[in-house]
Amino acid sequence: MLLLRVCPAMTLHLPYSVARSKLPVTTNPHRFSNLTVRSSNFPLDLDPNESRKLVVAVKEKLEKEHYSLPVGKNGRDDEDMILWFLKDRKFSVNEAVKKLTKAIKWRKDFNVAELTEEAVKDVAQTGKAYVHDFLDIYGRPVLMVVASKHFPEAQDPKDDERLCVFLVEKALSKLPTGKEQMVAIVDLRGFGTENADLKYLTFLFDVFYYYYPKRLGEVLFVDAPFVFKPIWQIAKPLLKSYASLVRFCSAEEVRKEYFTDKNLPPNFRD
């Protein structure tokens, strides 16, 4: 029997036959236009004047009730950030203030502004995750995760979390004008029980839900082995609506449907 630890208090027992078998790839021949409708669940934009009034209302409420919060980019007076969270909260001022307050406090406590290439270089050198140099064919920044290089027992989880946030910030900095979302590609080829880390997976999705809402447009799980199935069955309910962004696909589908020969990520080149 193999022991699969997916969180501190939970162990799954898997027979060797299951661990060695492969999870059949479930192809989903949806077109990207369908995904856009599914994942872009913002309400229609309000009239600019109405939007402006709501932004000012949130800004004033944050200043009055949370004056100690930082100001400037990604602070309580960042009108672009305020508008984004208003859209996420369906233009509810109170809900936007609540979620913004949580996000701004987290950014300060996590020291997001101090994350640099140098600060995460040691864990980045493992090659477990990176931002691809090129956009996909839909003009989205690409966050690559190579699951077989992630060893939770050997690496400090705090370092992994800092790398995650640094790469999300880096990907967002590559957004072209008019684009609002990135794509995450999780390469599961070679994945084994020693790479399983449910805690980190839920951290990743929590980061997107609470602090970078609606910035993740699609998640590709590539060539998932059968041993990944029980992990996904546990994780899926925890991810709630974000689970609908996941597509299981093959490496060949990634090559053909998301990139050209010239801009393939390194680990998908023949």
Account of the 3D structure:
This protein is α/β, with parallel strands linked by helices and 270 residues long. The chain folds into 2 domains: 48-110, Helicase, Ruva Protein, domain 3 (Orthogonal Bundle), CATH 1.10.8; 117-268, CRAL-TRIO lipid binding domain (Phosphatidylinositol Transfer Protein Sec14p). It contains 10 helices and 7 strands. It has helices at residues 16-20, 32-39, 48-65, 79-88, 93-110, 121-124, 157-173, 198-211, 229-239, 251-258; strands spanning 2-7, 10-14, 129-131, 142-146, 182-187, 216-222, 246-249. β5, α8 (198-211) and β6 form a beta-alpha-beta unit. α3 (48-65) packs across α4 and α8 (198-211) runs parallel beside α9. Residues 119-270 form the CRAL-TRIO domain. This is CRAL-TRIO domain-containing protein. InterPro entries: CRAL-TRIO_dom (IPR001251), CRAL-TRIO_dom_sf (IPR036865), CRAL/TRIO_N_dom_sf (IPR036273).
